């Protein structure tokens, strides 16, 4: 059951463009996963139809896993010309690629191993180079061409990718940064807000009651034009920003047609 779609207009400090995040809230995680996988599949193919390819950046964490698994299912996977998709990551933990904590491993097990991709299309963050060198190398791999579709999650502290609250990394002019996480694995490599906000389309996938308070705070910051938390500072200049949430995460925002909060 689709509960609510809300878009808000906010003005980037000093910028002309108004960001209109498209916030969609679904009655359950299953519905969120189904809707997210369908929307992302459709838009990946749209980019291929428009530009002949799609540069797709994947997220880590637990929330995107079922979305990857759904995307890998034949009925959806066959709607995408995978020969034209290039796979990147928004961030990586500095662990071996076969490690259970590896975002590369997560995406490989849930999606990449099940769709027709060749090695030259999969651009892993080579953390074995060491964080700083891996960040420089990945910035070179990414180049200056915008990413087409970027998938992100949000932590209960409002972090996204490996961009954490109060970190100097948030103001970085680099495309890729070696970052430190307050929770293990500590050493990370992450794309920057600059790289994210140059993307053509960004999806934030958020589910679970443990994220509700922070999501409310993030949406308030976006709405008031005073983005502080990393997730609130995800404001692609293209304006194509989707927040795909489940009811538990969007609890404070569930309103009926009269705008009253639904208890
Ligand atoms: C990572 C992610 C990170 C993640 C959030 C949410 O590597 O951990 O990139 O930003 O998206 O921590 O994680 P969950 O989806 O597991 O709640």
Distance between the termini: 17 Å
Tally of separate helices: 7
Strand content: 15-25%
* CATH topology tier name: Rossmann fold
Quote the average pLDDT: 91
Description:
The chain has 263 residues and is an alpha/beta fold. It has a single domain, classed as Rossmann fold. The chain is built from seven helices and twelve strands. The protein has helices at residues 29-51, 65-71, 74-77, 103-110, 131-142, 193-197, 212-224; strands at 2-7, 10-11, 18-19, 22-26, 54-58, 85-89, 91-93, 149-153, 176-180, 187-191, 202-206, 241-246. A seven-stranded mixed beta sheet has the order 1-4-12-11-8-5-6, with helices on one face. Helix 1 (29-51) crosses helix 2 (65-71). The chain is globular and about 45 Å long. The model is unreliable at 9-17 and 254-263 (pLDDT under 50). It binds 6-phosphogluconic acid (6PG). 6-phosphogluconic acid binds at residues 59-63, 90-91, 93, 103, 153-155, 159-162.
Brief sketch in words of this structure:
By secondary structure, the protein is of the alpha/beta class.
């Amino acid at each position: 059951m689709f509960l609510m779609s809300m878009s808000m207009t906010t003005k980037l400090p000093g910028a002309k463009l108004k960001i209109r995040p498209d916030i969609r809230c679904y009655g359950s995680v299953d519905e969120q996963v189904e809707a997210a996988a369908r929307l992302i599949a459709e838009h990946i193919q749209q980019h291929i139809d428009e530009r002949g390819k799609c540069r797709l950046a994947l997220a880590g964490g637990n929330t995107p896993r079922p979305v990857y698994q759904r995307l890998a299912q034949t009925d959806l996977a066959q709607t995408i010309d995978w020969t034209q998709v290039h796979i990147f990551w928004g961030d990586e933990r500095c662990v071996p690629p076969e490690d259970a904590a590896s975002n590369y491993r997560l995406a490989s097990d849930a999606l990449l191993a099940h769709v027709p991709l060749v090695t030259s299309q999969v651009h892993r963050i080579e953390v074995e180079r060491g964080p700083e060198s891996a960040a420089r190398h990945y910035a070179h791999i990414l180049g200056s061409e915008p990413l087409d579709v970027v998938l992100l999650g949000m932590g209960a502290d409002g972090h996204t990718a490996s961009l954490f609250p109060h970190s100097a990394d948030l103001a970085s002019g680099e495309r890729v940064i070696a970052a430190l996480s307050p929770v293990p694995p500590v050493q990370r490599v992450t794309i920057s807000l600059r790289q994210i906000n140059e993307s053509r389309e960004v999806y934030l996938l958020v589910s679970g009651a443990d994220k509700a308070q922070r999501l409310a705070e993030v949406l308030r910051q976006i709405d008031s034009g005073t983005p502080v938390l990393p997730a609130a500072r995800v404001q692609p200049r293209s304006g194509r920003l989707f927040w795909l949430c489940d009811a538990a995460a969007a609890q404070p925002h569930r309103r009926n047609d009269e705008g009253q909060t639904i208890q």
